[in-house]
Design goal:
heterodimer, A: alpha/beta, Rossmann fold, 5-stranded parallel β-sheet, 5 helices, 5 strands, 44% helix, globular, B: alpha+beta, Beta-Lactamase, elongated
Chain lengths: 121, 467
């Protein structure tokens, strides 16, 4: 069982994603933006993976920036990005090493596959 | 024969310059053949004549008088005296006169040897060159985009007024200096330097090299740099013309448009994600036999979302390239072939046709539906080929989705047919105004052929198709 921090500014999408992740036996934490997420990441809370939307509120690359700060705080953190926007090579170059990506809209099956790959690495 | 054996008169007759000898009274005592040829005159009209009285008195010029009467008596020689005059018969000419005082044995007064060289063509060429330069400079100054002309050693020969004005720099600060030394070294970029070094030796122009930087008095600016080799006919010297196109506003508009596209895409995909999430939630509480239907619905929503991305990747302005679009669909579907389906290969053969974006989504959904059917039903052992092909036939084109699987005969008759899938195919075909070509038994696998109207335009340069 893993602890996954879900960062998504759309409440419905976030809660459905949490529901899916919990169904596979994992525990979830949630944040609606980078600042909320960093509070959790700076705490003593155990976190195995960060699942973040790239476009967070008004920050087009907010998720990428969050992931970079997160990996500095927790170098072993697993990272899964998602976005509905096209992922350019420039954006991919900003991904932290070993990160996974899942485009929106994703199904439960696709999310599960991504987590299986992410947590097995 | 030694040089010393050659008579002076032979030399005088041979040299190309017109030569005349004057006595102390400035009467012409002799002239050489070149003189008579140049001025189209004869010895009778010339010898014994006062130089000022020659022809139409063209040599009666105050400066020449000063030269012959004041300078020569006190100096041994004068060089490079220029006379521009409308000469009889030969017309307007520029003559370069060199004078030398000579003394013959027994002649204490001495004579004057005048060498007259016709430099009209050289002077005309020089004047033409000057006019060309002035014309070039005036063109350079008229062009609104800043530009500079560079020597082979990359130093600036000239900068346009627009360059000087826009970058707030003086001509003296630019001339003879390298571009990289100007301002705060904004142009000192290794990649630009490498490209510039190839413009003259390799005749390789620079097209739209983008530089974005802060410029004094201008703020943040984006410039596109274009450079090419320039040369004047008959002149072996080459120079480089470097033009700076300010694309800041255009770039900003592009960034605004991209930002808007991203924002819209973000909202659409989030809304689709909400729908997919709702379906997932409903599926949780639904009886097992119905779950597959919900999953299929999710997959179709996913396909629509993916098609929007593929359209934007395959878009050529107002049209979508069908071949590129098919390749993107194949790539996306191939990426989803994992586990026991990873042995299925999707291949694309497409003519370079273009489709209008409004019809790209139903076309993509049609391809998606047919390919998904092949993946699901043609390969019970998880290996095989699927071919996606578009081919032009007059004012129609044919979409072919073919597989080398088990074919219609080999299907498990105990499984119910995919009614919804074929309904969707029929709807998309009707939406696109096409027709299904009746299915026939193939020796291997299944082939679906659909004729669609050519709403598509072949790429420019080929035959124009019906809209």
């Amino acid at each position: 069982m893993a602890v996954v921090l879900v960062v998504e500014d759309d409440v419905f999408i976030r809660e459905i994603a949490e529901m899916m992740i919990q169904d596979w036996g994992h525990e979830t934490l949630s944040a609606s933006d980078g600042d909320e997420a960093l509070l959790l990441l700076r705490s003593n809370q155990h976190i195995d993976a960060l699942f973040t939307d790239i476009y967070l509120k008004h920050s087009v690359l907010g998720g990428c920036e969050l992931a970079h700060q997160a990996i500095k705080l927790r170098p072993k953190l697993r990272m899964l990005y998602t976005t509905g926007n096209l992922v350019t090579d420039k954006m991919r170059a900003m991904f932290v090493e070993g990160a996974q990506f899942l485009s929106k809209p994703y199904t439960e099956h696709q999310l599960q596959q991504s987590f299986t790959t992410l947590l097995a690495a | 024969m030694a040089v010393s054996d050659i008579a002076a008169s032979d030399i005088v007759e041979t040299v190309p310059s017109a030569l005349i000898v004057l006595d102390r009274n400035l009467n012409i005592t002799s002239a050489n053949r070149a003189f008579y040829q140049t001025f189209r005159t004869s010895a009778d009209e010339t010898e014994g004549c006062l130089i000022y009285n020659l022809g139409n008195r063209q040599w009666d010029i105050p400066q020449l008088r000063t030269l012959l009467e004041s300078v020569i008596p006190h100096r041994a020689s004068v060089e490079g005296f220029e006379v521009e005059h409308n000469f009889p018969v030969i017309g307007r000419r520029t003559m370069l006169v060199n004078a030398r005082k000579i003394f013959r044995p027994g002649d204490s007064d001495g004579s004057i040897l005048l060498a007259i060289e016709d430099v009209s063509e050289e002077r005309a060429a020089r004047a033409e060159s000057k006019r060309n330069w002035q014309l070039t400079q005036s063109i350079v100054d008229t062009i609104r985009d800043p530009l500079v002309v560079l020597e082979t050693n990359m130093t600036i020969v000239t900068a346009s007024k627009a360059f000087l004005t826009i970058f707030g720099i003086t001509e003296a600060e630019t001339r003879g200096r390298r571009l990289s030394e100007l301002l705060q070294h904004q142009w000192d970029v290794p990649a630009l330097r490498n490209l510039m070094e190839k413009v003259l030796p390799d005749n390789k122009p620079i097209e739209s090299f983008e530089i974005e930087d802060d410029f004094p008095g201008l703020g943040r600016r984006v410039f596109n740099l274009n450079a090419r080799k320039i040369s004047q006919p008959g002149n072996h010297a080459h120079r480089m013309l470097l033009v700076f196109e300010d694309v800041t506003d255009r770039k900003q508009r592009e960034r605004d448009a991209l930002s808007l596209t991203n924002e819209i895409s973000h909202r659409i995909k989030n809304n689709l994600q909400v729908i997919v999430g709702l379906i997932a939630y409903e599926a949780k509480w639904t009886a097992a036999p119905c779950v597959q239907g919900y999953k299929t619905m999710q997959a179709r929503i996913g396909a629509i979302a993916q098609l929007y991305d593929l359209i934007s990747q395959s878009s050529r302005g107002r049209t979508v390239a069908v071949d590129a679009y098919l390749r993107e669909i194949a790539k996306a579907m191939s990426a989803s072939l994992i586990g026991n389906m990873s042995g299925i290969v999707i291949e694309v053969k497409g003519e370079p046709l273009e489709i209008d974006p409004d019809r790209a989504v139903p076309f993509g959904l049609l391809v998606n539906e047919l390919t998904t059917n092949a993946i699901k039903h043609a390969f019970p052992h998880g290996t095989g080929h699927i071919l996606l092909c578009v081919e032009k036939f007059g004012d129609e084109f044919e979409l072919v989705v073919a597989d080398d699987g088990i074919g219609m005969k080999g299907k498990d008759s105990t499984k119910p047919p995919e009614k919804r899938g074929s309904d969707y195919v029929a709807i998309f075909v009707r939406q696109l105004g096409g027709t299904m070509i009746p299915w026939k038994q193939e020796p291997i696998g299944t082939t679906v052929r659909i004729r669609l109207p050519l709403l598509l335009v072949p790429p420019s340069g080929t035959e124009q198709a019906a809209a």
